[in-house]
Amino acid sequence: MIKKDITRRDFLGKSATGIGIGVLGALNAQSCTSLEYSREREVLRRNLRVASVDLQHMYPGISIESRIKNMLDRMEKAAGSQPDILCLTETFDTSYVNESKPYSEIAEDEYEPGPVTTRISNFAKAHSCYVICPIVTKNQGRYYNSALLIDRAGKITGAYHKVHPVDSEISDGQGITPGPIRPPVFETDFGTIGMQICFDANWFESWAHLKNDGAEIVFFPSQFPGGRILNFHAWRHNYYVVSSTGEDARIIDISGIDIDSSSFQLGYTWASINLEKAYIPTFPGKYSIPDILTKYKDRVKIKVYRDTGGGAGTGAGHITIESLDPDLYVKDVLKEYEIPTFREQTLEAEQVQNRYRNPEA
Amino acid sequence: MKNEYEVRLPREIVVASIDLRGLWPVDTVEERVNDILDRMQEVYIFKPDLICLPETFQTSWVREERKVEDYAEDVHVPGPVTSLLCREAKAQQCYIVCPIITKDDGKFYNSALLINREGQIDGVYHKSHLVPSEIQEMGLTPGTLTPPALNTDFGKLGIQICYDANWFDCWDHLKQQGTELICFPSQAPFINVLKHHAWINQAYIVSSTGEGARILDITGDEIVKSGQFERWVCETINLEKRLIHVWPYIRKMKAIRNKYGEKIKINIYHPENWITLESRDPELKVQEILEEYEIPSYDEHLRKNELVQDKYRP
Predict the structure, then answer these.
(1) Model-level pTM?
(2) Which residue of A lies nearest to B60 if distances are taken between CA atoms?
(3) Which residues 6+ apart lie within 8 Å of A340 measured at CB?
């Protein structure tokens, strides 16, 4: 049994030294001598620190080089929060930079790190953290407004292509190519993530695909902040949304409520978030709260949100429940008390409604 | 007939909504109906065009237990409760959204009747997304997923009830029919959720719930809400208001302001990249300005971009 006070970074420091998720899984399978051992590691890796930078005070930039330097400088400051993943702003190397270069000169490969990606990769490796690196990329003769996922070892492990570029970016087919409506999700050592970029916020389909494909956090590099639109996507799909924009950077809870946002003074934000967390309806959730608290005490954190709505019934809108104990999975608690998640409850209700619906009335 | 001294823009209306909080629990349906009628009196001084009441207001949290078939009212011929509300509507010359259990063709529904200024039933909405217990225990039938946009003399009105807030299909159907105002009788307040429905559908929302009454702007901003000192809301809203995307149309706002001055009210919603334009002149329609400056609606702007995206998507 490993010590309870093991820190997440101690643990990840070992796992990140040249190994990926596959090896992490193998470690669990081969080295674990007890169920508790396995679970402790699992829940530890479901708690993570996210950080995100904004572009405030960096524009207009004089040159691409000065922009990259400014961004790296801010990233180093944000690194003090010891993030497991750090999100950068949409096309951070070229947006609002006076120096203008064609895509043919700035677009980087999605597999072999180019000039910008190499420097971001070095940062990722030095700080043993993932980085969402949004730049223009080229792939099979096409240009994309992308967000690359760089892992803790500094390796590019995935690319998201902006689904909904604005028409001027596409430039009659001479510029950016739109990505597929069903975007990819990416596995990390803490969970499954997805990305959406800027104008994507105005469409709902791809956000829903990400949820259905298992995304637990959606990163949102952007020029525009998104405001309440992002709170909606987070609530709608009960995943975290982390934005990095020209005006601000935000971390939004699975309930759709802001956890933290960047300040004018710092230009970056950070927070600990727990993926071992569920969003449940007030009914029947509220009836089990006293029993859950009595049994699990400080091993769970339960928060009742009065004003957000969502659940069936009256009064409190919804409840979030999260595990603070490596030995405890939220899904096990919900199963024990027969509490559905909000999503499960609405799907179940929909089946009943459709069975009895009068299509004419 | 409204007050002849009152100056209103052509598409300005006064909407009121009644909060159920403080009126529950009570022993009898009669008590509850009287309490609601009393609370409605509070807003009459404002000469409202529309009053929204809470979901199943005559029976929710009423101790007196009765069978659904004993209190469900007809959707065409006013029953006991509907008759009282028809009387009020006629006396006040206002529309009333009257949410009660109804019966129609042998089925029971959780409904909201629209009563017009003449005191007649002028439309009905049957809750689409019932809570399973309403179906399995009360014997109610869910309504269609294509709810009607109800015609009024100020525009098209939609209704959604309580649990409906968790779905998007019906709200979207109302939007496609040109609904500009959606009444939301409910037990639960669904506060943040309603704000999202407002901006997604660019419609005003008037909620009347067991825990508050609210009026939301087409951006989702809360215009007014009830509280412990007044359990009702009443506000003038202007339906001559539109939401557009900021880019690239922000460039045209200066010219619009220069030409129309105080005749047009322009608000910028910076984080969301939205602009709202509201006409403050009886002769000026927002649509005419949009056409003059070749500015598409928010949805047209998205569709225009979507066409280009789809054309070049591999």
Answers:
(1) 0.92
(2) A314
(3) A280, A281, A334, A348
Cα A332 to chain centroid distance, Å, stands at 24
CB within 8 Å: A358 and B271:
no
The owner of tokens 């691409």 is A64
Whether pLDDT at A89 is above 50:
yes
Which chain A positions have a beta carbon within 8 Å of B305's beta carbon?
164, 166-167, 199
Closest by CA position to A150, among listed A103, A96, A215, A83: A83
pLDDT for residue A32 is more than 60: no
Closest residue of chain A to B188, computed from CA coordinates? A314
Between A164, A167, A356, which is nearest B142 by CB? A356
Q: Is any Cβ of chain B less than 8 angstroms from the Cβ of A229?
A: yes
State the Cα–Cα distance between residues A89 and A223, nearest whole angstrom.
7
Interatomic CA distance for residues A157 and A161, integer angstroms: 14
User: What is the dihedral sign for C-alpha A127, A130, A136, A142?
Assistant: positive
Q: What is the Cα–Cα distance from A306 to A317, expressed in whole angstroms?
A: 5
A94 in Cβ contact with A133 (< 8 Å): no
Report the interhelical angle of A21-31 vs A8-16 (nearest 10°): 110
What's the token pair of residue A171?
């430039």
Q: CA-nearest residue of chain A to B145?
A: A359
- Structure tokens of A245? 């924009």
Per CB-CB distance under 8 Å, the chain B contacts of A203 are 302, 306
Of A167, A248, A315, the CB nearest to B308: A167
Residue type, position A148, single letter: L
Token output for B168: 């998007």
DSSP class of B174: H
Q: Which residues of B touch A311 (CB under 8 A)?
A: 188
Omega of the bond leading into B25 within 30 degrees of 0 (cis): yes
Quick check: A231 contacting B, CB < 8 Å? yes
Q: CA-to-CA distance for A107 and B188, rounded, in angstroms? A: 51
**Residue A341 near residue A238, CB atoms below 8 Å:** yes
- Whether the predicted pLDDT of B207 surpasses 60: yes
Interior angle at CA B44, CA B43 and CA B47, nearest 5? 105
Contacts of A328 (CB under 8 A, 6+ apart): A39, A43, A296, A299, A300
Q: What is the pLDDT of residue A21?
A: 34
Residue-wise pLDDT for A309-335, tens only, equals 544 333 446 899 999 998 899 999 999
